[in-house]
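Page 42, continued from yesterday. The earlier attempt failed because a stray header line got pasted into the input along with the sequence. Redoing it now with the clean sequence only.
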Amino acid sequence: MSFSTVRANARSRFNETQIYLNHIIRLEPNDPQIVPSLELKIMRGLFQVQLYACLEKTINDVIEQALRNISAKQVKNSHYILPFSVISLYNKLKSIKDSGYDKFFLKSTELFSEISNSNTVSINETMFSSTLQNVWAKTIEEVVKAFGIKGYSIPLSSRVTVDELVDKRNAVAHGRESASTIGERQRAQVLASKMTVISTVTSEIIDLFDTYCTTNGFIKPAAKKYY
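This time it went through. C-alpha cells are written below.
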C-alpha cells in the first residue's frame, strides 16, 4: 500500500461519513427550537463515533505505511538521524525498560553501541498501534516527533476538535454516555464543521509523512546518497 492508497482509503471513509451526515441533515428540523427526535439525536451521536473511526484508521494507516517504506530501505543504524533511534532501536529501549536496574548499564552500553554500527534492524510497522488506539492531538504530535520530524503541531482550534471527538467517542464506546446524549445539542452544521477539521488534519498528516519518506527525512543528510 502506498500513500496514494492511504489517501484513497481515507477519502472513501470520509465519503461514507458524508453520506451519513447528509441523512442527518435531511432529518433535522429547520427550526432549532424544535426538539429533535430520539432517532436524530442517536444518529448525531453515532456520527461522531464514525468520524473518529476515520481519524484513527487513517492515522494508523499513515504511520504503518511510513514504517514499511523506511524498513524497505534497509538503512544502516549509523545512517539514521539520531531522533529516529527511538523507532529503529525500539526493541533495545524496551529491553532497558524491562531489564531492571541490575542490567541497566549493560543494556545501555548495547544500545549506544548499536546506534553507531552498520547493522540494519527490522522495524515493526505496528509498533505504534497500541499508542494510536486513542488518537488525541497530543498523541499525534508525540508520534510525529518520534520520527524526528520538527516543527509540526496541530493548531489550537483543531486540537480542541480532535480531543473533543476522542472524548465523545470514548464516552459512547465505553458506555459513560448514550449516543442520544452526545448528539442532543450539536446540530448538523456543527458536525459538518468537525468533519472539515478532521479531514484537514488527516490530509496534513498524510502529506507530512509522504514528504518525509520521499525525501528520506529519517536519514542523515551526508548518508542520503547511499539510498
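Notes: The chain is about 65% helix and 0% strand.
Reminder to self: strip header lines before submitting.
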